[in-house]
Amino acid sequence: MSPLYIGLMSGTSLDGVDTVLVEFAEDTPSCIATHTEPYPASLRDALLTLCEPDAKVETMMALDRRLGEFYARQIRQLLAAAGVSPTRVKAIGSHGQTIRHLPDHPYPTTLQIGDPNTIAQRTGITTVADFRRRDMAAGGEGAPLVPAFHRAVFHRPGENRVVVNIGGISNITILPGDSDAAASGFDCGPGNVLLDSWAALHLQMPMDKGGAWAASGSVDEELLARMLRDPYFRTSPPKSTGRERFNLQWLQAHGRIDSAPPADIAATLCELTASCIATAIGHHAPQTTSILVCGGGIHNKTMMERLRHLTAPCPVSSTKDHGIDPDWVEATAFAWLAKRTLEGKPGNLPAVTGAQEAVVLGAIYP
Fold first, then answer.
1. Same domain, 75 and 110
2. Based on CB atoms within 10 Å of each CB, which residue in 35, 127, 340, 355 is the most buried?
3. Nearest one of 192, 164, 150 to 315, comparing CA atoms
């Protein structure tokens, strides 16, 4: 019987935690059970406050423990629902909740909270966490890390694929059909983070469900052009970004949002995400023959329609058609990364992060 692993993923959108129980036949994952738990409003509000530049260290320390307890409860619920004993699980791979990502700082660093000591103590399962900082120590951006998993499960000889993940931030993984060619990838720019913040402000809802609100508006071409002039979009990879850059203050700095109908801004933000992804593919992977999409953005019909339009005639499909449900790719990736860590195998792709070498990622909490 193959050992089981658990992957935990909390993304830039700050909407909650995805938990997945995975069995591996060699490196091929099979999802046994899944669970998604939204953050309670009080916890999400506290995390958003913690993302502000003047957040207190004491607040961060308390939330680190609070999240550790929260994550441990979700793991216990997942295992209880699946009827699986914790003794069958070899390790948990916990991404943690990103609070700061500063790859361009004089001392590049990143911070994900959700105390792995607490997770290991409450579950009795070895926990692997803090995946990103070892890549940074090796000279990398610390992100994106999931492309190594994309290569392992989605690469097909003879087919030039691009895997698009649309979470809070959007990123692409370029998988050349030539097996000798290196996989590459980077963060394209905003995924759902701006649209979610805009929906929270105007709809008092965490997201524009299905993109229906955006579909009711019209793209403000002048605002779109202003936003696309941000230097990030022209920066060459390796590159990664986050909420530190793309936030409501960034949107407000481009003007017009007070005079345009809110639905038009929503439509423009959908177009921004689709445009930055399509442009990234066009510039860096022009020979792409197939696009696979995962992440929460796949449920935004308006965004997906625009992405298909901007990348036509290249076919766009869900990763579900290739073996893994799009909602569980990232959580499964961190189960896989935990497995790599325990096996003493590298988990990063230097061609993606810019690290000087491939390194074993993460810290192990027995």
1. yes
2. 127
3. 164
Tell me the per-residue pLDDT of 120-156, one tens digit each, with 9 for 90 and over. 999 999 999 999 999 999 999 999 999 999 999 999 9
Residue pair 282/288 in contact by the 8 Å Cβ criterion: no
Is 321 domain-assigned? no
Give the up-direction half-sphere exposure of residue 227: CA atoms within 13 A in the CB hemisphere. Answer: 30
How many CB atoms are located within 10 Å of the residue 315 CB?
A: 12
% of the chain at pLDDT higher than 90: 93
Q: Which domain holds residue 355?
A: 4-143+328-365
Going by C-alpha positions, the residue among 284, 123, 120, 264 that lies closest to residue 188 is 284
Q: How many residues does the chain have?
A: 366
Q: Give 356-362's long-range contacts (Cβ < 8 A, gap of 24+).
A: 356/138, 356/139, 356/140, 357/138, 359/134, 359/135, 359/137, 359/138, 360/134, 361/131, 361/132, 361/134, 361/135, 361/145, 361/337, 362/93, 362/128, 362/129, 362/130, 362/131, 362/134, 362/337, 362/338
pLDDT in tens, 2-48: 889 999 999 888 889 999 999 998 778 999 999 999 999 999 999 98
> Which CATH number characterizes residue 207's domain?
3.30.420.40
Same domain, yes or no: 17 and 109:
yes
Considering the domain architecture, whether residues 110 and 18 belong to the same structural domain is answered as yes
Predicted local distance difference test score (pLDDT) of residue 12: 87
Instruction: With respect to residue 319, please indicate whether it lies within any of the assigned structural domains.
Output: no
- What's 366's DSSP letter? -
β partners of residue 36: 18
| Domain total in the chain | 2
